[in-house]
Amino acid sequence: MKIQESAENYLETILVLKERKGLVRSIDIANELEFSKPSVSIAMRNLRENGYVSMDAGGFITLLPAGQEIAERIYERHRLLTKWLTGLGVDPAIASEDACRIEHVISAESFAAIKAHVQKHDAE
């Protein structure tokens, strides 16, 4: 399923914040991404309407199965690409920024090859 890069970033951010804080609200996302609260509210409405997240009466956001799947895929790509770039000697902050850009456009074939390379290198 193809969704916009911005939606992938929101879903990944929700996953990361959930792991870090346990509960996630729109304000947490706004603070993490340094976006305005209205921008995040619009994005959350779109993600809810498309079946990626739910929001309870208290404003707490939960990833639905489709959103969880995308978030986990993007986050795995982010972590692995950051590790790979850092292993090549790239500064960790730059590696993380570049991984964030690459994670959305890399083909499944190229990512699988990088993943296999990193795993082989880790095993050595």
Automatic annotation (TrEMBL):
Pfam families: Fe_dep_repr_C, Fe_dep_repress. The keyword Transcription applies. Keywords: DNA-binding, Transcription, Transcription regulation. It comes from the Bacteria. The keyword Transmembrane does not apply. Residues 1-62 form the HTH dtxR-type domain. Belongs to the DtxR/MntR family. This is Metal-dependent transcriptional regulator.
